[in-house]
Specification:
The protein has 12 helices and 8 strands. By secondary structure, it is α/β, with parallel strands linked by helices.
Length: 309
């Protein structure tokens, strides 16, 4: 009963989610027709928003070096932008720093016992501090889902606050793991709990990419509307990162339509919106080449990334 009453009180405070309304709205995003010049703009913008990711147990310094090179020069066409960041495990941060430190490409590191978050707090904090010391510009942390679902909201927020402080000047991205939060109401509630502890420019993020269900237009929309409502109430600009399962340029453009129609042009940049992805970049490059040459490109024309994030 503690869990139900605690979450119910929070939902009553911030307002519930109209699930049918969310589903109806996001369904309309998939029917938008984007003309050639707007499509080209959207493809380039989405490319600049990618956190190019590898999160495998078999990651090596050599694989990270290759990832960094692709991040810096995604394709040999000069007008294709660099990606926003490379996203890697903490042990790989110092290797990435050799290649991208001092460039516009940032180093994002998953930390806090990613993806489960099931480690003692002092261990998770130590991991954050080490990643920052090694050169991480951004830290992607996972919330304590067990604490959230049992109504221990102060614990959730205290941990986020501790990780924020451990980041120093580095950006913090708070992963909600939406598939484990069960409902849109819970996703909205967790978004507000996190945002209240964040600084302008910090992120909330859908997923680790390590569960069966990751970023969807639905959970993305719930979080965008939470960001909008939090901004209107406080003036604090929180950024957003959907992650996991976004593999096609078509999907990415639908997500950008959601951003434009919910938050406006001020969020259409990689300081306020990112895609956590690996396979997505190649499809964006294919579509950009198609727009440039008029010929659809074969998948093998681009380097493969096997991380599957």
């Amino acid at each position: 009963m503690i869990r139900r009453n605690s979450i119910r009180n929070l939902i009553d405070e911030i307002g519930p989610v109209d699930q049918a309304g969310i589903e109806e709205r996001v369904a309309k995003y998939t029917t938008r027709s984007i003309k050639k010049s707007s499509k080209l703009f959207g493809l380039r913008l989405a490319t600049s928003m990618v956190d190019l990711t590898t999160l495998e147990g078999k990651d090596t310094p050599e694989k990270v070096a290759s990832l960094c090179q692709k991040a810096l020069r995604p394709h040999n066409t000069p007008d294709i932008p660099q990606v926003a960041a490379v996203c890697i495990y903490p042990a790989m941060v110092r290797h990435a720093a050799k290649h991208v430190k001092g460039t516009p490409v940032r180093i994002a590191s998953v930390a806090t016992a990613f993806p489960s978050g099931q480690a003692p707090l002092k261990t998770r904090l130590a991991e954050v501090r080490q990643a920052v010391a090694d050169g991480a510009d951004e830290i992607d942390m996972v919330i304590n889902r067990s604490a959230f679902l049992t109504g221990q909201f102060c614990l959730v927020q205290d941990e986020i606050s501790a990780f924020r402080d451990a980041c120093g000047d580095s950006t913090l991205k708070v992963i909600l793991e939406t598939s484990e939060l069960e409902t849109y109401d819970h996703i909205r509630a967790a978004s507000f709990l996190a945002m209240r502890m964040l600084r302008p420019g910090d992120f909330i993020k859908t997923s680790t990419g390590k569960t069966s269900s990751n970023a969807t237009l639905g959970n993305n929309q719930v979080m965008l509307e939470a960001i909008r409502d939090h901004f209107l109430a406080t003036g604090t600009e929180i950024a957003m990162k959907p992650a996991g399962g976004i593999r096609s340029a078509k999907q990415a453009l639908q997500f950008l339509i959601a951003v434009k129609e919910t938050l406006g042009d001020a969020w259409l940049n990689n300081r306020r919106y990112r895609f956590g992805a690996s396979a997505l970049l190649n499809d964006l490059l294919r579509q950009l080449e198609t727009q440039r040459t008029g010929t659809y490109q074969a998948p093998w024309s681009f380097t493969e990334d096997s991380s599957g994030y």
